[in-house]
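Progress report, Aim 2. The chain analyzed during this reporting quarter is listed below.
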Amino acid sequence: MTRIELCLDHISPTKREDLLEIIYEELRISPGEITADGNFELDLTNHDPETADSENAPFVRINGLLFARVSPQRMRELINGRKRGV
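Predicted structure tokens for the chain:
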């Protein structure tokens, strides 16, 4: 299972919603849900010591790997890469 964690630290509501919209378009899940096939899980997180740098927000952690400055397009690329097994 691929675990996606969207860090809410240093992210505006608009950016948060933009990223969540991409995740929903690609996976049809909202925070706290797992895809019907059981391959993806989405959680929201707060106060991660590794994401203290607001200049590099928004942060997304996928299976423990931290990604910084994640745009909606980058979020789509990360998800599609995981779908393909990259």
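Residues 29 and 51 are 24 Å apart (CA to CA). The helical segments are 13-27, 72-83. These observations will guide the mutagenesis work planned for the next reporting period.
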